[in-house]
Amino acid sequence: MKPKQPAIEGWFTFNDEAPHLLGTRCTACGTYFFPKETFFCRNPACASSQLEEVQLSRRGRLWSYTNNCYAPPLPFVASDPFQPYAVAAVELEKERMVILGQVEAGIATEQLEVGMEMELTVGTLYEQPEREVVIWKWRPLAAQGRA
Amino acid sequence: MSKEVVVLGAGMHPWGKWGRSFVEYGVIAARAALADAGLEWRDVQFVAGGDTMRNGYPGYVAGATVAQALGWSGAQVASTYGACATGAQAIDVARARILAGLCEVALVVGADAAPKGFFAPTGGDRPSDPDWQRFHLLGATNPVYFGLYARRRMALYGASERDFALVKVKNSRHGLANPNARYRKLVSAEEVLASPMVSDPLRLLQICATSDGGAALVLTSSEFARRRTTEPIRIAGVSTVTPRYPNTLIEMPNFATDSVVGSQVPDTSFRDSIAQGAYEQAGVGPEDLDLAEVYDLSTALELDWYENIGLCKPGEAEKLLHDGATALGGRVPVNPSGGLGCFGEAVPAQAIAQVCELTWQLRGQAGERQVAGARVGVTANQGLFGHGSSVLVKR
Questions:
Q1: pLDDT beneath 50, residues of chain A
Q2: A38, A64, A82, A94: which to substitute to probe chain B, counting the most B Cβ within 10 Å?
Q3: Which residue among A7, A15, B160, B175 is least enclosed by CB atoms within 10 Å?
Q4: B243 in reach of chain A (CB within 8 A)
Q5: What is the pLDDT of residue B115?
Q6: CATH (domain of B100)
Q7: Residue B84 sits in which domain range?
Q8: Looking at residue B123, what is its pLDDT?
Q9: Closest Cα to residue B96, out of B74, B80, B116?
Q10: B202 in a domain, yes or no?
């Protein structure tokens, strides 16, 4: 098996059974940021610059979804032939924010429904000769344990 | 002091795929607007250019680029960029200079030569640029965001793909008689629903194309206009608002919304605040509107705008559409120009083109697409990275 390399450093964990997105939380007002905000809290009512890295909730509810039926342009690295894939917007209850992600390969929009429970996983973004480049993805909780 | 400026002239270069330089489109639109105003280029004291990001350095300094092409005249200049809201920013800069008494005659111009297919980020490897990241990490094209909004609308309000298709049918009818529109062909709901799926539930004929085009306005002070016209078309409000934290709607090019933890959600959403800003400046409300030009980047988005600009309550846009209220001949026609569905998008020109259409409509010069007796119109539009854009025009 090729070694896995994250498509971007520091945005998610990927070496364990339960991957997490990595965000930051303002220690003063408590708001969350993804991707990580590291300089100043962006809440205009908060002057804090104390931001701690946190693992975000792995589960949430599907806010909306769509797909790419055609290959996106560069810098997206498309497979050849291109395989359409779904994109999900998932609302995290604790963080009270919506986060986008690709949907796990092989899950079509027909299998998705607004409001369903989703969980975070990690999958291939594209392959290089020496490594598999990975990214966070969403999948329906009901799909857990599929082959 | 009056907070109004006058649109003395409006002009366009037709939208299409012409294969020429954006400078050419800008100059032709500017000359048309000047001729319409009955003024010479050398009468212009200030040029506000809307920038294009896809045509190299001349596009980043669009005001000066067009001024040079028209012939250096010594006019003062500004070039601005606000993504799809670029045109409204350029209008606002020109308006502010006129209202401050710094000039009497300003030219606002925007033009673009667009590549075919999906808009992509500007070239080069820029892993810290959110616009680069969204394409590389997610393949999040603009239609992906449009698809998310459309599916959400279906889940919240029971909208159907056919509802969305009927927006395209309406706008295709509106654009038939518009000489500046790129697509002048009546399409049926069946044709829309048979076109290829791009980003579920949106099909090719429900997503606006990328186009070449140019639009220009000659804006003047009320005092200057009084010597030239007895029926001035007036800009009474320009909104270039940004969102208020926390913005709870996922926006291009972001990966996430703001978190609601630790702060209060604003009473008015960003989208709702856009036209509201223009209404407040003008002292009018949505009930005063005779027509609107809104940014139908997708068919479903046009329905969102009905609610965002206050034509109806959330969830009632489909009914408004089915009742014919937003078609020519209805209570408040939306996109009588044919909208982006008939034009395609020429980014820095588009918000200016919306005001050109309102100007012609309010003068009664819109020919077969004329909204009878139109006195008040609004434009609405939004640019990525948090740019509101709305212009209130009245006579």
A1: 147
A2: A64
A3: A15
A4: no
A5: 84
A6: 3.40.47.10
A7: 5-117+211-224
A8: 76
A9: B80
A10: no
